[in-house]
């Protein structure tokens, strides 16, 4: 089973920036999204890009602080998160969906916001 490869998590201080990356080896994707799952909570949407060139949809948790970028030719995507706070502590997941509806997920990367 192909999985996406995520990187960029770790410990971040409040107010700082975190950048997550996702590589989709050998996958031509249409939709790319980032989700997160805080401790004890359900998975929630951070950002979603339905297709190249389309406007990105951001979840309520983004609050104007997140930026999704996609590099379709390179088979990768990223999520930049500004002004992080303790409530942003979560496992972050990358998801891609191909034209024929196949869905792939990353293994998750932990982001912990603490001083």
SSE layout and pairing:
Layout: E1 5-7, E2 10-12, E3 18-23, E4 31-37, E5 44-49, E6 57-58, E7 66-71, E8 76-81, E9 90-97, E10 103-105, E11 109-113
Parallel strand pairs: 2-11
Antiparallel strand pairs: 1-3, 3-8, 4-5, 4-9, 5-6, 7-8, 9-10, 9-11
Characterize the structure shown.
The model has no long low-confidence stretch (mean pLDDT 95). By secondary structure, the protein is an all-beta fold. A hairpin with a 5-residue loop joins β9 and β10 (103-105). The strands form 2 sheets. Strands 2, 4, 5, 6, 9, 10 and 11 form a 7-stranded mixed β-sheet that branches. Strands 1-3-8-7 form a 4-stranded antiparallel β-sheet, with no helix packed on it. Helices cover 0% and strands 48% of the residues.
């Amino acid at each position: 089973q192909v999985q996406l490869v995520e990187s960029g998590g770790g410990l971040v201080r409040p107010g700082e920036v975190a950048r997550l990356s996702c590589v989709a080896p050998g996958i031509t994707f249409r939709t790319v999204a980032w989700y997160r799952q805080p401790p004890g909570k359900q998975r929630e949407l951070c950002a979603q890009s339905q297709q190249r060139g389309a406007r990105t949809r951001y979840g309520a948790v983004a609050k104007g602080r997140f930026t999704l970028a996609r590099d379709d030719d390179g088979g990768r995507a990223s999520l930049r998160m500004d002004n992080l706070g303790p409530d942003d502590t979560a496992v972050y997941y990358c998801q891609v969906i191909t034209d024929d509806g196949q869905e792939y997920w990353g293994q998750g990367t932990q982001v912990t916001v603490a001083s």
